[in-house]
């Protein structure tokens, strides 16, 4: 029984395969999330439905990234599918999961000393960005990928690291103010812009390398006969930067337009020339 | 006088260097540092004749004389090793200059002539590189060739029906240098960068 998607070296088959470890992981994550949404919390508790919708969407993203076929293809066949898993786990699922967490629940966590220290520490942009960058770079080093992906435990560790790093990266932006930190909207936008930079490094290496970087994908049986290992790697590199940046720029846009609307609302109404006092 | 002495010294040096140069030419190929596995003693280039995908007779020894020749026995329905090996060789050859490419011949011998008809073999090889030579013929010749190189005998493994069988075969690419010997063989797992580096060495060119 294969519990987690890993590189097996077997020829790829489009026949569905079960990965019970993935289901268990998603089920545990879902159960924890449901508990978070349903548990009575002190103070007002808005948005239980919002919690379920956003949380559900986040869980679907996690499940898609880990299960057959994306998870299996990414673990041992295609670098591009590996990148898709990374995008889903680090850049799509975390903001959705964080969006759904009720603010009251975070207040409750902040009431505990350990929770307060941890959440406030992670909410510092340099800390969150450092963690995200280190995980992103480390999990794309060829030796790390080639030694982690053939083992189920190694592949699980990479997937988990991506999810945790993604949650950390998004936390300073998604954390409800003013419970955790006071990051103004322009600073959030600046933070998000800086958040797009670390991916340039692996993306450039993947796109412009002369030869395939990862043995696990170069020596894997081809999924599509005419799709070479080099082309696959180039698609992975481009997807990491272009597709991977989309959620970040989407969040950037939402923050910008909210900020602009608020500025407009707060600005004094324009004085009509007909009511203006004559000099 | 000095000029005459210089001339004689030069002549003497040239005479001393000529045999050294000749000895260097004759020095056997040194496979040290190559990514492939060193074979000791080297495998002599086998003599066999099979048909090309164009239906012409291909005398392996004669038609590959003077080239670095990569010989691989596999089959087009191979799900893993064969396409990966050939794709990696083709990709590395594409990256190397014509000074290397023009000195290399890649010869693929099918171990499954029943399914690998000439057009099937040709179109499959063309997916990797149209210059790859595809050979087919009597299975007994192929088996003898593999036995001569001590690479085992392909084993037919039954599939769901008569046409879906697989063939267990050696995953080794045998690299013959222009001295008609294989000093090195390449098992599965050799990467494109390794092929590129080794082909430059095998062809004796300085750069790719």
- Largest interface by Cβ-Cβ < 8 Å: A-B, 17 and 16 residues
Percent of residues of chain A in helical segments? Answer: 55-70%
What is the number of strand segments of chain B?
10
The H-and-E topology of chain B, N to C, reads as HEEEHEHHEHEHEEEEH
Average predicted local confidence, pLDDT of chain A: 91
Helix content of chain B: 25-40%
* N-to-C CA distance of chain B: 48 Å
Indicate the low-confidence ranges of chain A by residue numbers: none
Q: What form of chain B results from the Cα inertia axes?
A: globular
The structure class of chain A reads: mainly alpha
Name the quaternary structure.
heterodimer
Residue windows where pLDDT falls under 50 for at least 5 positions of chain B: 9-25
Number of helices of chain A: 13
Class from secondary-structure proportions of chain B: alpha+beta
From the spread of the alpha carbons, the general shape of chain A counts as globular
Radius of gyration of chain B: 21 Å
Overall average pLDDT of chain B = 89
């Amino acid at each position: 029984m294969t519990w987690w998607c890993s590189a097996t070296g077997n020829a790829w088959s489009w026949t569905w395969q079960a990965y019970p470890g993935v289901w268990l992981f998603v089920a545990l994550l879902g159960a924890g999330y449901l508990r978070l949404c349903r548990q009575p919390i002190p103070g007002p508790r808005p948005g239980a439905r919002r919690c379920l919708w956003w949380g559900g969407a986040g869980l679907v993203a996690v499940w898609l990234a880990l299960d057959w076929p994306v998870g299996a293809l990414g673990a041992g066949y295609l670098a591009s599918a590996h990148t898709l898993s990374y995008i889903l786990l680090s850049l799509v699922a975390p903001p959705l999961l964080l969006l759904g967490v009720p603010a009251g629940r975070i207040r409750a966590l902040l009431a505990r000393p350990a929770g307060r220290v941890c959440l406030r520490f992670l909410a510092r942009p340099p800390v969150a960005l450092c963690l995200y960058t280190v995980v992103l770079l480390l999990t794309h080093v060829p030796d790390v990928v080639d030694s982690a992906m053939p083992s189920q435990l190694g592949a699980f560790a990479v997937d988990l690291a991506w999810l945790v790093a993604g949650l950390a990266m998004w936390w300073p932006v998604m954390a409800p103010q003013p419970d955790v930190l006071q990051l103004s909207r322009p600073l959030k936008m600046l933070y998000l812009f800086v958040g797009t930079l670390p991916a340039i490094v692996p993306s450039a290496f993947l796109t412009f390398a002369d030869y395939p970087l990862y043995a696990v994908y170069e020596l894997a049986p081809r999924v599509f006969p005419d799709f070479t290992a080099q082309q696959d790697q180039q698609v992975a590199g481009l997807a990491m930067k272009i597709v991977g940046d989309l959620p970040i720029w989407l969040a950037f846009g939402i923050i910008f337009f909210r900020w602009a609307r608020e500025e407009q609302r707060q600005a004094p109404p324009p004085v009509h020339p007909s009511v203006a006092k004559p000099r | 006088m000095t000029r005459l002495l210089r001339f004689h010294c030069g002549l003497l040096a040239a005479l001393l260097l000529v045999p050294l140069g000749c000895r260097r030419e004759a020095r056997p190929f040194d496979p040290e540092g190559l990514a492939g596995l060193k074979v000791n003693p080297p495998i002599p280039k086998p003599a066999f004749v099979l048909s090309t995908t164009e239906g012409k007779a291909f005398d392996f020894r004669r038609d590959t004389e003077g080239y670095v020749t990569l010989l691989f026995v596999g089959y087009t329905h191979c799900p893993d090793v064969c396409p990966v090996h050939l794709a990696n060789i083709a990709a590395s050859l594409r990256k190397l200059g014509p000074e290397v490419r023009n000195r290399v011949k890649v010869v693929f011998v099918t171990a499954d002539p029943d399914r690998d008809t000439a057009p099937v073999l040709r179109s499959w090889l063309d997916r990797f590189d149209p210059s790859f030579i595809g050979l087919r013929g009597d299975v007994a010749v192929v088996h003898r060739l593999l036995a001569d190189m001590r690479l085992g005998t392909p084993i037919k493994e039954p599939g769901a029906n008569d046409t879906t069988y697989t063939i267990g075969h050696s995953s080794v690419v045998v690299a013959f240098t222009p001295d008609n010997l294989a000093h090195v063989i390449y098992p599965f797992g050799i990467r494109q960068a390794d092929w590129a580096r080794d082909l430059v060495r095998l062809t004796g060119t300085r750069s790719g």
